[in-house]
Amino acid sequence: FNIQTKKIGTGDFNESSVLLGTVNAAPQGRAVIQTPQTGKIVSLRVAPGQRVGKGQVVAIIEQQVDAGTQISINAQSNSVNAEYEAAKAQYDRLLGIADIAAKKDITEAKARLESAQKNKALFDANTGKNTGNTKTISLSSPVSGVVGTFNYAIGAVVNSGETLFEITNLDQVFVEAQVFAGDAQKLKLATGFTTISNTDTMVYTLKVISTAQSVNTGNQSQKVVFEIINPKGQFKIGENINVRMTGNNVIRQVVIPNEAITDVNGKPAIFIKDKAEQYSISFIVKGQSNDKFTVVTKGTEDGERVVTANVYQMKMMYLNQ
């Protein structure tokens, strides 16, 4: 069964506490894609679960312009273009007679032309140089990330301000943790913060981003925000995780590896090697623990060898006796 054991002993142990936290998107790691105008979806450039880059076009909306609005747009277009052509003609004429024209007139004509150019560029940018009865709007992603689920299809009509889908970047996530009064002082003295992913069981380091600015009046808890260093996309938004904060108080007790502890009939237990090919179960009383070790106050002694690998097989053999 490839059973492996390890000799335990008394060692230095940094006590720690556990905080309950919830994974949230970073402020710059989540984007909501909305349409600024009512229109029809004519192109979808992404699919749910697809990774997109910052600035990538994700959808194209075609806006239907009513007759009254179209007439107004055409009138404004004619006015802007006419002013630009008149200003340009006047400036060119004055440049042609610059040797006899007043310098003041040339300066005023240049300023008029520059103003007309700006107005024309602004109008063209807002209309996309399209003064017909349709207007195309390109929607692009302001962040890099993964597209969430959505139910829209090409041809669907969407209203102004309606959310099409969300884009989330899981390469940078925050954790909002609840800290009660008993742990507030420990938070100030903590030497490190870690958590374990539910996906790959690896240990990840956290960094405090913001301490509590207020207290929840309901349960008197404080909210502290952490950032997970290099999360590797293993944490999901809204996921509940445990944040373990390691204290600076060192205690000296018998400690065992966490992988040696199993649950038998609702009680924590370990398997001790008595002699060659002979093992016995021992129910323990656990003390403080961290990501790797647990203090044992009862159930084992300094110098004993405990099973640390394939503990599950030992548990099955014990239950089948």
Give the arrangement of secondary structure elements.
Blueprint: E1 4-7, E2 9-25, E3 30-34, E4 39-44, E5 51-52, E6 57-64, H1 67-96, H2 103-127, E7 134-140, E8 145-147, E9 157-158, E10 163-168, E11 173-179, H3 181-189, E12 192-196, E13 203-210, E14 222-228, E15 240-257, E16 262-264, E17 267-275, E18 278-283, E19 285-289, E20 293-298, E21 305-309, H4 311-319
Antiparallel strand pairs: 1-21, 2-11, 2-15, 3-10, 4-6, 4-9, 5-8, 6-7, 8-10, 11-14, 12-13, 12-15, 13-14, 15-20, 16-17, 17-18, 17-21, 19-20
Helix pairs in contact: 1-2
- Strand ordering within the main sheet: 2-11-14-13-12-15
- Approximate strand percentage: 35-45%
**Unreliable sequence segments:** none
How many E strands?
21
Helical coverage, percent range: 10-25%
Task: Tell me, rounded to a whole number, the average pLDDT.
Answer: 85
Helical segment count:
4
* Run of helices and strands: EEEEEEHHEEEEEHEEEEEEEEEEH
Largest sheet properties? 6 strands, antiparallel, barrel
Tell me the radius of gyration. Answer: 34 Å
Question: Could you characterize what this model shows?
Answer:
This protein has 321 residues and is α+β, with helices and mostly antiparallel strands. Helices cover 23% and strands 43% of the residues. It contains four helices and 21 strands. The strands form four sheets. Strands 2-11-14-13-12-15 form a six-stranded antiparallel beta barrel. Strands 1, 16, 17, 18 and 21 form a five-stranded antiparallel sheet that branches. The longest helix is centred in the N-terminal third of the chain and has 30 residues, at 67-96.
